[in-house]
């Protein structure tokens, strides 16, 4: 462990001292032993060489898709279709007449560009569905008819005329261009911030669906990966002297002692300075008085692939999330964030369904880590996430994994996701990888919120019910949801990194999980695959604790060869002093949560004060 020389806030110090042989050792009661976490990321090379055999589709499956070299069976849904129409028709009321022509129901608010979702009025047998599809294909108003697929009890998932493809090397672009020309496939564009990934369209081809097209290209064995671009419906998971601080029970709970994240004690150590938290969400009010001082200069819009980020009036979710992460500290305004001196990196997306949804979100996450984000927080997910083992987005998953392995110059970004608000199941993509820090919600009495998603992939819980935070137009308000819980954990990750910037992603996550409080009337038990303490499927490792997380990783702070002539405080998880003189009526306070050791001289002149405390 590297020792750090810290002068703290001390002024007018000199090295005028006398060496003495006396050694004074003062040890605090609490000692924390870190146990190496067994949970490790598998790098890309290992993934390539490790064949997955558990969900291979029947070789004769009618419908299937390829996911990381694996053939996954699909079940056609015969109650929904997506139809691609001309842009002029999509912008008019004529789509209702199209639906009525076939006794179909146009789904409300389900128009996505020139793609319209139609639902059969009654359930049909296979032959009726096939006849409907054939009739729609003959309609001059319809350019494509695209299938939906079942995913258990969740809403069926649709497809569009778009799919994604990854080259093996940059030299394979010529192969792609030749094959797309041969098959009348259009190369739409390269995905920003996702090297070798391309968006392709089947619109003028003979392929029946994006699934069929992606299968064809993958089975040529000329390309690294494909992604059929299932239309996941990623939605927000919502249901100090700062004057409203007393109402922020998640930071300090005045009604139920210890049912909070212990933020005030953590702020005596750090408030998150030097850390950048990317908020991937619906956009953040750029003029909010309690936020704008903490905005990083860089921002990005994942839909347009350009900077700056975009804020649309009426979208409140992102502004609320950002306030919980890092609303400004001690400014006589409204609320305060968990990491009130961290910088907010705004990455916007309106989170409305589109045919390129996954690629856009992958772009936003990749842009964030490539532009220096330390933590990437995501309060959104697809509500059918419990059935993720059937449906994947390879391009989005790669972006998340890259952030966790390549971000922070190889130390890895901490990536947080909301568990979702469908109690008993969890959202995708927060549940696809063990190294994502997935967050559930509790009420102010320490019980799991009734809406909070839970299951085998849940890691921790945080306050998520009746959470007060910033809203657009310099206002505040309360929201419920795992969306509100997740930024609490992102803020704690920022505090831990601020206190020790050299920690890896794994070390930060381990600190948060190992230090969680076992709240509520739940049984926490030793569980296979959960190395960081006892665990419960509704509460994970428990309620996050900012102060305990900071103190579960212990950098040594050294304070050597100083003469203290004005009041001074030295603090850290472990503090070592050597050859110290306190004079001129000054007071020296040493705050060391686990261990304070003084070597050689420690001289306190008459009229001066010396204090050691744990917090």
Q: What is the H level of CATH, i.e. the homologous superfamily of the largest domain?
A: Peptidase S8/S53 domain
- Which percent bin holds the helix content? 10-25%
Biggest pleated sheet: 7 strands, parallel
CATH architecture of the largest domain: 3-Layer(aba) Sandwich
Please tally the helical runs, counting DSSP H or I stretches of 4 or more residues.
13
Number of strands: 30
Which overall shape is indicated by the principal axes computed on the Cα atoms?
elongated
Q: How far apart, in Å, are the first and last alpha carbons? A: 22 Å
Structure description:
- Helix content is 21%, strand content 30%.
- The protein has 13 helices and 30 strands.
- It has a seven-stranded parallel beta sheet, with helices on both faces. Strands 1, 2, 27, 28, 29 and 30 form a six-stranded mixed beta sheet that branches.
- The radius of gyration is 28 Å and the shape is elongated.
- Residues 1-57 have low confidence and may be disordered.
Topology readout:
Elements: E1 3-5, E2 24-26, H1 44-49, E3 64-67, E4 70-73, E5 76-85, H2 87-90, H3 94-101, E6 104-112, E7 115-120, H4 126-138, E8 142-151, E9 154-158, E10 162-166, H5 173-183, E11 186-190, E12 197-201, H6 210-219, E13 225-227, E14 234-236, H7 263-267, E15 276-281, E16 295-301, H8 317-326, E17 343-348, H9 357-370, E18 375-378, E19 380-382, H10 394-406, E20 414-418, E21 437-442, E22 460-463, E23 467-471, E24 475-479, H11 482-499, H12 505-514, E25 525-527, E26 530-535, H13 546-551, E27 556-564, E28 568-582, E29 587-604, E30 609-613
Parallel strand pairs: 1-27, 15-17, 15-18, 16-17, 18-20, 20-21, 21-22, 27-28, 28-29, 29-30
Antiparallel strand pairs: 2-29, 3-4, 5-7, 5-8, 6-7, 8-9, 10-12, 10-13, 11-12, 14-19, 23-24, 25-26
């Amino acid at each position: 462990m590297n020792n750090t020389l810290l002068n703290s806030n001390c002024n007018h110090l000199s090295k005028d001292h006398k060496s003495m042989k006396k050694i004074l050792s003062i040890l605090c009661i609490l000692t924390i032993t870190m146990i190496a976490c067994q949970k490790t990321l598998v790098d890309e090379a290992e993934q390539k060489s490790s064949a997955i055999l558990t969900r291979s589709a029947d070789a004769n499956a009618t419908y299937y898709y390829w996911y990381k070299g694996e053939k996954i069976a699909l079940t056609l849904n015969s109650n929904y279709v997506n139809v691609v129409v001309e842009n002029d028709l999509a912008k008019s009321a004529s789509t209702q007449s199209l639906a009525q022509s076939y006794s179909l129901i146009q789904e409300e608010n389900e128009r996505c560009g020139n793609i319209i979702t139609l639902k059969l009025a009654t359930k049909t047998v296979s032959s009726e569905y096939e006849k409907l599809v054939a009739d729609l294909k003959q309609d001059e108003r319809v350019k494509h008819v695209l299938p939906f697929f079942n995913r258990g009890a969740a809403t069926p998932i649709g497809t569009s005329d778009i799919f994604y493809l990854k080259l093996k090397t940059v030299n394979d672009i010529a192969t792609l261009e030749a094959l797309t020309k041969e098959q009348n496939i259009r190369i739409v564009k390269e995905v920003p911030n996702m090297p070798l990934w391309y968006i392709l369209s089947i619109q003028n081809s003979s392929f029946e669906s994006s699934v069929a097209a992606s299968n064809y290209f993958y089975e040529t064995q000329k390309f690294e990966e494909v992604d059929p671009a299932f239309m996941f419906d990623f939605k927000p998971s919502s249901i100090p002297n700062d004057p409203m601080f007393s109402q922020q029970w998640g930071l300090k709970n005045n009604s139920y002692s210890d049912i909070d994240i212990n933020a005030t004690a953590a702020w005596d150590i750090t408030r998150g300075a030097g850390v950048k938290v990317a908020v991937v969400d619906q956009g953040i009010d750029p003029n909010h008085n309690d936020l704008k001082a903490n905005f990083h200069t860089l921002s990005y819009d994942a839909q347009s692939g350009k900077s700056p980020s975009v804020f649309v009036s009426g979208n409140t979710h992102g502004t609320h999330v950002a306030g919980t992460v890092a609303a400004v500290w001690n400014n006589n305004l409204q609320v305060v964030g968990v990491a009130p001196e961290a910088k907010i990196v705004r990455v916007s997306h309106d989170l409305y369904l589109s045919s390129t949804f996954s690629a856009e979100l992958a772009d936003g996450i990749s842009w964030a880590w490539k532009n220096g984000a330390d933590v990437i927080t995501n309060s959104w997910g697809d509500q059918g996430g419990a059935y993720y083992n059937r449906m994947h987005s390879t391009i989005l998953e790669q972006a998340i994994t890259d952030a966790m392995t390549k971000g922070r110059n190889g130390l890895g970004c901490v990536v947080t996701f909301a568990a979702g608000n469908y109690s008993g199941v969890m959202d995708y993509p927060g549940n696809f990888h063990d190294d994502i820090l997935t967050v559930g919600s509790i009420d102010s009495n320490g019980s799991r919120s009734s809406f909070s998603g839970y299951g085998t992939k849940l890691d921790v819980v945080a306050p998520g019910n009746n959470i007060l935070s910033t809203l657009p137009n310099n206002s505040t308000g309360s929201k419920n949801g795992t969306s509100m819980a997740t930024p609490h954990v992102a803020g704690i990750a920022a505090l831990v990194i601020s206190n020790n910037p050299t920690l890896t992603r794994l070390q930060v996550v381990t600190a948060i999980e190992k230090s969680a409080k076992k709240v509520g009337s739940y049984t926490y038990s030793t569980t296979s695959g959960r190395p960081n303490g006892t665990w419960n499927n509704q509460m994970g490792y428990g309620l996050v604790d900012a102060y305990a997380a900071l103190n579960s990783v212990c950098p040594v702070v050294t304070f050597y060869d100083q003469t203290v002539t004005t009041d001074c405080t030295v603090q850290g998880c472990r503090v070592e002093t050597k050859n110290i003189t306190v004079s001129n009526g000054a007071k020296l306070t040493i705050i060391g949560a686990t261990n304070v050791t003084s070597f050689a001289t420690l001289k306190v002149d008459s009229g001066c004060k010396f204090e050691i405390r744990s917090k």
